[in-house]
Every structure is written in C-alpha cells, then in structure tokens.
User: Fold this.
Amino acid sequence: MSNPIDKLLTKMRQAPTGVRFVDAIKVAEHYFGAARQKGSSHMVFKMPWVGDPRVNLQNDHGKAKAYQVRQLLDAIDRLTREGREG
Assistant:
C-alpha cells in the first residue's frame, strides 16, 4: 500500500483542479519543508536550487489554485529528477 503523500500526488496529477488547500500544503511540506512565509491565504515554499525560485500556494475557498498545483508538481518532478541524476 502506498503512503498518504503518494496517494495525494496521484490525485493531484489526475486533476489539479479541486485539490484541497490543506492537501497541497501537506505535499509541499513533505518535499520542501515548512513554508518560509505563512499568511492567512498564502504559503510560500522555497525550492532547494540556485536562485530564488519558490512555489506559492493560495487558499481559494478551501481549494488550491490549479496553476499553483501544477507549479508544485513541476517542482516535485524537478526535485526527484535531479535526485536521480545527482
């Protein structure tokens, strides 16, 4: 049986629209640690590569914005790809 993060990732990849904000935060924290900025509706996660890249997740009535979910998925893909190459 896969772990809860894997299940959330699968759901997010299948449908980035309608992802619960709290689920997106769980996945982001699993891969990138605690948010460096926490606001009432925004959480910003710093990426571990050079420069100042970040993923911003915004709470939109309990859901994460679809384009931000896609950015999170792209960042996770990059992280795992670079981990295999390094």
User: Anything to note?
Assistant: The two ends are 28 Å apart (CA to CA). The mean pLDDT is 88. The longest helix spans residues 66-85. Helices lie at 4-14, 21-32, 66-85.
